[in-house]
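Researcher: Next entry in the queue.
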Amino acid sequence: MFTIDISPYLDNVGATTAGRTATGRLNVWNNSFAAENLPPGGSNVMVGGVPYVMPPFGGIDPDNIRCAGQYLELPGPGRAVDWLHLLATGERRVEDEIAVHFADGSVDFEPVRVSDFWAAPAAFGEVPAFETLMHYPAHTQFGVPASVWSQRVPVTRRLPLIGIGLPVNAALHVFAVTLQPPDGTRRPAAVSTAGTAPSTGAATSTAGEAQPAVPSTAGAR
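Model: Structure for this entry, 221 residues:
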């Protein structure tokens, strides 16, 4: 599998520290995840057998994409892909479409469904990735957990994939993206020329073990 560097597109703060809860912007009430309960930025985490590179959690720099139709350009000439894996959450239950762009110019629209971050079981069969305390702008709410999910989106056309078009849906927040090739082999994770934060150590979610990363050539657009 190949992780994709989405750092050039990060535009929203979804996790904060206990001393900086006012900077959270996960929803209209400015809730946020507790950064102390999440892996360090730049670390490599396995969730249900899928490797992800963690964004910078801490309440200062953006750590997720709040979906507004962004186009994520993929590295190189493209490669065939069976699945897009998203580390994501929803301000509410999200049911929308992702545009998958191929090297021959064709575009398919595939369903993406992601559960609410708010203290509830997965509604669409996602793998639970992380559960944290719930932050409000002025306090930490104990007893009400917040969830990040690992969800997958199918890619049915057997052509090189060159880009991903996110939906125009502010309720969907994407923290990391990984591609799974048709042969299903796990390969070193990759980052773009824009670069990600250096690994601060391997972190593990409740769903798996960490895996290292190596650079690629993903670009921003």
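Model: The longest strand covers residues 139-154.
Researcher: Noted, moving on.
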